[in-house]
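[Solved] Which block belongs to which protein?

Original post:
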Amino acid sequence: MHRRWLAIVAVLLIIQAAGLTWHLARGASPVTHPASSTIESQTIPATIGVAERKDVPVYLTGLGTVQAFNTITVKVRVDGEIDKIAFTEGQDVKAGDVLAQIDPRPFQASLDLAQATRAKDQAQLENAKLDLQRYQKAGPLANTQQQIDTQAALVRQLEATLQADQANIESAQVQLDYTTIKAPLSGRTGVRLLDQGNIVHATDTTGLVVITQLQPISVVFTLPQDQLQEVMHAMTSTSSPLKVFAQGRGNQQQLGEGQLALVDNLIDQTTGSVHLKATFPNTDYALWPGQYVNIRLLLDVRKDSTIVPSVAVQSGPQGNFVYVVKADKTVEARTVTVALTQANQSAIGTGLQVGEVVVTDGQDKLKNGATVETRSPTGTSKTSQSTAPRSNAAPTS
């Protein structure tokens, strides 16, 4: 009897558990709520931009190093003692300015001696010419022909001596001029390498000072060899030199505008790059020798291009596309071709017209036909404004 009751209780518990399980399963079944349809139909906030018609510059970029246009170490060319230093370190000098003076007295004495020797030989020549004239006037009756020929030879000899004396004078004058050390070019002096009172020699390896020409100034930069043909084509297609812009390392400040002066005649095989040189006026001394700068080489300007912010262009299985906002605030995914991307802007080749509105932020939540609440890049709502394309929009060329 006890076992029978236990069996009955067990059966009741099983029935009760089965009923509870069925109830829970029924209560957990999905129920469609009206709110879900509201979520699907709600507007999605998105930032927009407008396709514009602009001229797009085409740049090639590279890293460059500033070099002095000319660098010269000023050295002495004669031996002697430095009497005077006529410049200060870091001074801007012009070609021909006096930098230093070497004791000129020994060289002045050599010049005086050469001039005196020439005067002596000049007097001998004049006397020899007079004798020759007397011999020739008297004729062969008073003098032998040999005497006349000998006197004529003496005149020619003294004339040659006089020419040698003149050469000695010029050489002495040059040596004297070398005692005054002048700037060979315009530029800025560096650290003075010699002091007043030093004995210098023409064979010394140490110079007096280094002068660097800063106006104009050069920048040497590199480009990949794959871009060489673009540069050569741009150079041959225009009669004016290509423009080059130098910027700071952060690209926040333009340091100068110059012109392309040289494309090297060989490619560096170790790096696969080609060296180019640009010349800058550097009127404000913004460029300094040894400085690293970012270079932008202007190849071309594409006129009347259709421009959108680069962030508006998305990549998909079928290629690049943008979300275009239509007049009813719905979006359309439209395939486009990108002709060029420069400075966070993309030039659209086909697929978009000037004046059409595109989504620049929030594309990850969008799909074809979605309704958007448009906002400007500053966050201002544009729901009250029309996003329809302008009626006078022209197709891109």
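(Second protein starts here: sequence line, then its structure tokens.)
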Amino acid sequence: MPLSKLQFTPGINKEMTDLMDKGGWADGNLVRFRKGLPEKIGGWQKSNNSSYLGTGRALLAWVDLEYTKYLGLGTTWKYYVNSGSDYSDITPIRATTTNGITFAATNGSATITATDNAHGAVVNDFVTISGAVSLGGNITATVLNKEYQITSIPSADTFTFTATATANASDESGTGGSGADAAYQINVGLDVYVPSTGWGAGTWGAGGWGSTTALSETGQLRLWSHDAFGEDLIINPRAGNIYYWDESSGEDNRAVAISTLSGANLAPTKGLQV
């Protein structure tokens, strides 16, 4: 049987079945067509060398009216906007405390215990402290007044974080002043899926008939949905609030709840997707 030349049509055709697509390509991966012939894509390259915190969960690219390219990035811990070489943290603020936090340190330890009544934080949340004074030793005002990630929640009124310096004996008598300020970012979600909700999640016969475990913002895998609203951005952590980022305010400004916007009326405070 003589050999015959097979002439294939360039491009991937997904509108026909594999058998109907005679002389065509039905599927492919990492392939592009050049001059009618398929060739492999040359590989991947980092968009920039900046880092971010958490595991990436969602990406959104859009362009403003001045052709500035933006990239929204939602992670398990934060939400960022990128328009160049750096990621700007626009994670919304959940709550603030004014003149309400004091600190306690132990000689030889970098762990600081903060007291703030009904702070509402969970482990891995981020808090930015300001207005604190030195504890008297290595834990200076410069050490305290910055953003920290919460490492444990001993009680509803206390939390701990790891300072950038180790306390000495002089720090044990200090409190950081009469009361420092704090800005708490929204609660983080889980980094891994935990199958603990819905019917059948418990052991056989556990719970009442039809009982379920509530699916909270902090008790599930952190997933983000987001979309551009003109030049601006709307973001929603699953089962959490809906937030708005105004592009004209600059990347140094955080997203805010849509219920706080001027003229907001009956704005939803919880959402599963936007």
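Accepted answer:
You had them paired correctly. Confirming on the second one: The chain has a mean pLDDT of 90.
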